[in-house]
Amino acid sequence: MGEITVNPATELNLKENRKPSHIFSDEEVEKLVKASIDRGHPAMAKAIITAYSIGQREGDILRLRVPEHYN
Predict the structure, then answer these.
(1) Which sign, positive or negative, has the C-alpha torsion 49, 54, 55, 59?
(2) Residues 6+ apart with CB under 8 A from 29
(3) Which of 3, 31, 36, 64 can bridge 44 by disulfide, Cβ–Cβ 3.0-4.6 Å?
(4) For the chain, percent helix, then strand, then coil, each to nearest 5?
């Protein structure tokens, strides 16, 4: 198809996310999962593991439904 000379994304008026990111360590994830289970929220533990494992966006993780999406 060849190369283009313009960037079509410049016309989208996208806003840059300036929030600092935090990448959780394995130990932090384990603590979050344990705390969720200890407090009686196994679905939260599954969401944490899913998000950490596949790197999906938070909004997509929040739209998942138990049990059909997590299994």
Answers:
(1) negative
(2) 48, 49, 52
(3) 36
(4) 50, 0, 50
